[in-house]
Specification:
Blueprint lengths: L2 E5 L6 H10 L4 E4 L14 H14 L3 E5 L10 H21 L3 E4 L9 H18 L6 E5 L12 H10 L6 E6 H6 L7 H14 L5 E6 L1 E2 L10 E2 L8 H8 L8 E4 L7 H13 L2
Parallel strand pairs: 1-2, 1-10, 2-3, 3-4, 4-5, 5-6, 6-7, 7-10
Antiparallel strand pairs: 8-9
The structure holds zinc ion (2 copies).
Length: 280
């Protein structure tokens, strides 16, 4: 069984995030481990890490993934790259202190340098971060992107290239976002296209590399390269895909995390829909 859940706020502290997840019946949650709009963050004292793990065990939530700050851009150069490498090392440390095994990271934007250079920068940044954190087990899950502007990661081939360039390091994996994949042009809305897509993921990356899914419907059309999240079933992806993924054994123990809008049916409505589609 996959683990359904939400991205929850840490406002008020990490224990509050667990409470929020529990209130919605989450089996997995995603959190930022710091204010995602600031570079610096204080380190987490061991007592706080222990309290978090204890509360987590008691909550019934089986898995937590962290999402890295949006400021980090490993595809950049110069000062921004240097700050990004430093910040990512800090993020991995914070995950380790909280007992979190996976950190979702956007591959970054080349900002006009061109995709080739952006990918080289990304590889170089990841190599450096992995080397400097070799004492940690925390994995980095590179997230597939819609491809707006100069953002890298709309094509799965790019991830294959990055991973290959890093010798398929065991600490690297992927986070797949259904809204982003749809906007990037991938088709998986019918049984046959879904099977084809899932099998190609298995062949190219291996299922163990897929550490997380973001389940979002899309307001934007397939191939539009626009990142517009929508409530499940109210967008261009449609309920059939969500029903297929929820009932697919390939995603055993994989967190399926909602990042749907907070208005309208909201988190409660989208969580209820996931449970209904899964049958419990
Ligand atoms: Zn993301
Ligand atoms: Zn998005």
């Amino acid at each position: 069984m996959s683990l359904i859940g939400l991205h929850v706020s840490i406002s008020g502290g990490f224990l509050k995030a667990i409470e929020r997840g529990k209130a919605f019946g989450c089996e997995a949650i995603q959190i930022f481990t710091k204010n995602q709009l600031q570079w610096k963050a204080p380190s987490i004292p061991p007592s706080q890490g222990i309290a978090f793990l204890k509360a987590l065990r008691e909550s019934g939530i089986r898995k937590v993934v962290a999402h890295a700050s949006y400021l980090i851009n490993l595809a950049s150069e110069g000062d921004q790259k240097r700050k990004s490498v430093e910040a990512l090392i800090g993020e991995l440390d914070r995950c380790d202190q909280l007992g979190i095994g996976e950190l979702v990271l956007h591959p970054g934007a080349h900002l006009g340098l061109g995709e080739k250079r952006g990918v080289e920068n990304l590889q170089d940044g990841l190599r450096c971060v992995l080397a400097k954190t070799s004492h940690l087990k925390v994995k980095i899950l590179l997230e597939t992107m819609a491809g707006q502007g100069t953002v890298l990661g709309a094509r799965l081939e790019l991830f294959r290239e990055v991973l290959e360039g890093l010798g398929w390091d065991e600490r690297l994996g992927l986070c797949l976002d259904s809204c982003h994949l749809h906007a990037a042009g991938y088709e998986f809305r019918e049984r046959s296209s879904y099977e084809h897509f899932a099998r190609s993921l298995e062949k190219v990356f291996g299922l163990s590399r897929i550490g997380c899914w973001h389940l979002n419907d899309s307001r934007a059309e397939r191939g539009s390269l626009r990142d517009r999240h929508q409530h499940l079933g109210d967008g261009e992806v449609g309920l059939k895909f969500f029903s297929m993924i929820l009932n697919d054994d390939r995603w055993e123990d994989v967190p399926l995390i909602l990042e749907t809008p907070k208005d309208g049916t909201g988190d409660a409505g989208n969580m209820a829909l996931l449970r209904k589609l899964r049958g419990y």
